[in-house]
Amino acid sequence: MESVKILNIFDLDYLTELMPDLVCIVGRDRYFKKMNFAVTKLLGYEYDELLTQPLDHYIHPEDVNNYLEIHATLYGDRSVQKFENRLVTKQGQIVWLFWTAVYADKYDVIFCIAKELSYRNVQSEADRISTVLSALNAEQIQALKISPDTLRRNLGAKEPHLELYTRDKMPQTDQHWLGKFELAVRQNRGSEYVTLATISSDLAMSERQLHRQVKKILGITPNKLVRMIRMQMAWEAIASGKYRTVTEIANVAGYASRAYFQEIFNQAYGIDVSELL
């Protein structure tokens, strides 16, 4: 029988398209030169759109300077760099990424792989709120029902489980599962009521299993977790500065009813969301 010779030839482009992590090539000018589907999927832009702006255009303003220093370092001493930063999606949402970047001298470009960080490295609720409150002017602060300092102090009492988002010792498998849960909520934000049946279907499990899993990891109900995620989306939208009305913030957070969104935001934080805009 004639033996079959197997050639060690692989299509690397095809393989990178299969990866859930972001894979991209960035030039000396900081523009994308090539990227896999995961990049466009996460950021919400078309492939060609992403090629029209430098990478720092999509980076959170507070992280741009650090990125520019790393970029310069890569082209300077050409060492492998590992770092975290935030990117802002086309919809205004903030995502955390852990990057590994290396200079490829053959092509004079930077090869990057980024993994999305979900619950472990997202800013705590208190940090997000502090960022927004710190940007308020004197007139806005005077209009608040309670002082910014009081809001910061009362945060833990109003939402005792929110800090569970940042538990450093959470097993990686739990972090990954919670990331999938959050993605299911974010992808269904156009529906005013994200049903547990929808989330269960997205996660390929029964509603009963869903309840048990969330309870095991966080000690709360799935509905409570959905509300926490939506409140997080609301604070991300406020912090981005791209939205000027309560209706816009409500839509980003997945609430079709402006009045209902204002009501639950007030219940959670003791403040009218309109006073932050």
UniProtKB/TrEMBL annotation:
<dbReference type="InterPro" id="IPR035965">
    <property type="entry name" value="PAS-like_dom_sf"/>
</dbReference>
<dbReference type="GO" id="GO:0043565">
    <property type="term" value="F:sequence-specific DNA binding"/>
</dbReference>
<dbReference type="Pfam" id="PF12833">
    <property type="entry name" value="HTH_18"/>
</dbReference>
<dbReference type="GO" id="GO:0003700">
    <property type="term" value="F:DNA-binding transcription factor activity"/>
</dbReference>
<dbReference type="Pfam" id="PF08447">
    <property type="entry name" value="PAS_3"/>
</dbReference>
<feature type="domain" description="HTH araC/xylS-type">
    <location>
        <begin position="179"/>
        <end position="277"/>
    </location>
</feature>
<dbReference type="InterPro" id="IPR000014">
    <property type="entry name" value="PAS"/>
</dbReference>
<dbReference type="InterPro" id="IPR018060">
    <property type="entry name" value="HTH_AraC"/>
</dbReference>
<feature type="domain" description="PAS">
    <location>
        <begin position="36"/>
        <end position="63"/>
    </location>
</feature>
<protein>
    <recommendedName>
        <fullName>AraC family transcriptional regulator</fullName>
    </recommendedName>
</protein>
<dbReference type="InterPro" id="IPR013655">
    <property type="entry name" value="PAS_fold_3"/>
</dbReference>
<keyword id="KW-0238">DNA-binding</keyword>
